[in-house]
Amino acid sequence: DLLLLQDFRRHGTRDMFLEYQPKLDIETRQVRDAEALIRWRHPTLGIVPPGRFIPMLEQAGLTHWITRWVIEETSSMLERTGLGARGFRVSLNLAPQDLMEPELVDFIIQRLASPMLACSLWLEITETGFIRDASLTRDVFAKLHDAGARFSVDDFGTGYSSLSYMSEFPVDEAKIDKSFVGDMLTNERHLIIVRSTIALAHELGLTVTAEGVEDKETLQALIAMNCDTVQGFFLSRPLGEESLLTFLDRDL
Ligand code: G
Ligand code: G
Ligand code: NA
Ligand code: MN
Fold first, then answer.
1. Any idea where the EAL domain is (predicted)?
2. ipTM value
């Protein structure tokens, strides 16, 4: 994987592209948002999934370049497709360390000055390995939130600090991890965790997305629990831009 790192240093994001996984809004039964997921079309290795290169770039402190590109690419997609003007939203994955890059934070704030982007861009942040410098973290969160950024806590429940996040930072959404949602109909503890997380998040004024919904029964159970948004293979796999547009035309 040192070779991948070398390739990234040489070519940057040149061969990267995004897929978008639709999310279903339960109240309106509409698809009004999607998660952007990066892929690398490597000249010799084929499509490399993010799980194979993001951790490596995290270690090398290079993810902020990816994040910057993802923001650019998502912004131009929202413009060229007209989805931004229709109020469609896209959530982006940030590596925790990205918020410690002042230049990236300024870049995000600059982008959020566009009213369309302020409505359309959401930021997904994982809790793992994050709160190293709590006061700096708090400042950055506050600064971005004041600029109109909306935050989802990704992989909610898998780290040690989900509840700290909810209580200390201005987060808007909890995204319950697929490891709880995927088997919640056969694993009673997971069902209890999902149900209680939804109730807790709602009491704190957050919305809730459940990810990893793979069948209709799980969707129905989540509807009964008052979940706000669902994402998963049952609704759709991550889609290229063209397929996303086709999917939305069918659905909206
Ligand atoms: O799509 P897939 O299941 O392979 O994604 C695997 C992991 O890669 C997920 O945890 C996802 O959050 C992460 N990931 C996908 N796209 C991006 C991205 O643009 N930036 C960062 N930092 N992580 C991403
Ligand atoms: O870590 P993060 O939550 O960002 O991971 C998102 C990843 O989960 C994406 O790469 C996506 O491909 C994957 N994913 C999305 N929906 C499902 C699903 O229904 N089941 C499973 N197993 N994985 C999913
Ligand atoms: Na994510
Ligand atoms: Mn997740």
1. 1-252
2. 0.95
